[in-house]
Amino acid sequence: MGKLEGKVAIITGGASGIGLATVEAFVEKGVKVVLADFNEEAGKAAEMKLKDKGADVLFVKVNVADEKSVEDLVAQTVNQYGKLDILINNAGVGALAATHELTFEEYNRVISINQNGVFFGAKYAIREMLKTGGGSIVNTASILGTVGRAGAFAYNASKGAVNILTKSLALEYAKQNIRVNAVCPGYVESGMVNKEALGDFYDGLVAQHPVGRLGRPEEIAHAIIFLSENDFMTGSTLLIDGGYTAQ
């Protein structure tokens, strides 16, 4: 099993939810973490809180839909820490709309962040990993990259793409010791997905998970740690969904 202590990781979407839980999990493993997010206020607050606890963490603002912004993120990481060992492509957005009413702008925003952002992250991370003999990439996909959901056309499309490009990258760079995997969470408790925010709709979501509850961010972070440590895993899309897709 690969030791994570002393490694350098970038985590996009790291200021909240699954991303922040993953930052915290890596910090506990002794990883130097670049916490990347578009939300500058939340990102700097998380950076300060973690530094106060002794973590070696750096916040960098990024727009994962912009190639130059992602290139600069990787460059800043290497400038600060000298290398890049791990990339967690976690940043993402959702969109719920009937497809016949979905505008191209709405569709393209989801694709640009969820799919293109993974491409840009992998492209520039792999360039650095090739210099140092390998690395690990974990992409955050979704159960909705495996099964469909009415009204989630753009999100389904983007996460399905993340699953298959994960496999493609894994095959392309296996011999260069770069492993590429994906986590596919079910619905996870967050600032926007909770009983108070969703009311009766929340109960419907819970009912779709055989375990009788939604996931917790730290449970997804645990899976990301596992994929980062296990040197024999590549090309996997790991479902962490409380039995949602087993039905």
Account of the 3D structure:
The chain is α/β, with parallel strands linked by helices and 247 residues long. It has helices spanning 17-28, 40-52, 67-81, 104-132, 153-173, 195-198, 200-207, 217-229; strands at residues 8-12, 32-37, 57-61, 86-89, 135-140, 178-185, 237-240. The chain has a single domain, classed as Rossmann fold. α1 (17-28) packs across α8 (217-229), α3 (67-81) runs parallel beside α4 (104-132) and α4 (104-132) packs parallel to α5. The longest helix has 29 residues, at 104-132. It holds the Pfam family adh_short_C2. Keywords: Oxidoreductase. Belongs to the short-chain dehydrogenases/reductases (SDR) family.
Q: How much of the sequence is in beta strands? A: 15-25%
The percentage helix is: 40-55%
Q: Spans with pLDDT under 50 lasting ≥5 residues? A: none
Name of the top-level CATH class: Alpha Beta
- The chain-level mean pLDDT equals 96
Descriptive tags:
Rossmann fold, 8 helices, alpha/beta, 15% strand, 247 residues, 7-stranded parallel beta sheet, single chain
A few lines on this structure:
By secondary structure, this protein is α/β, with parallel strands linked by helices.
Give the helix/strand layout.
Blueprint lengths: L7 E5 L4 H12 L3 E6 L2 H13 L4 E5 L5 H15 L4 E4 L14 H29 L2 E6 L12 H21 L4 E8 L9 H4 L1 H8 L9 H13 L7 E4 L7
Parallel strand pairs: 1-2, 1-4, 2-3, 4-5, 5-6, 6-7
Helix pairs in contact: 1-8, 3-4, 4-5
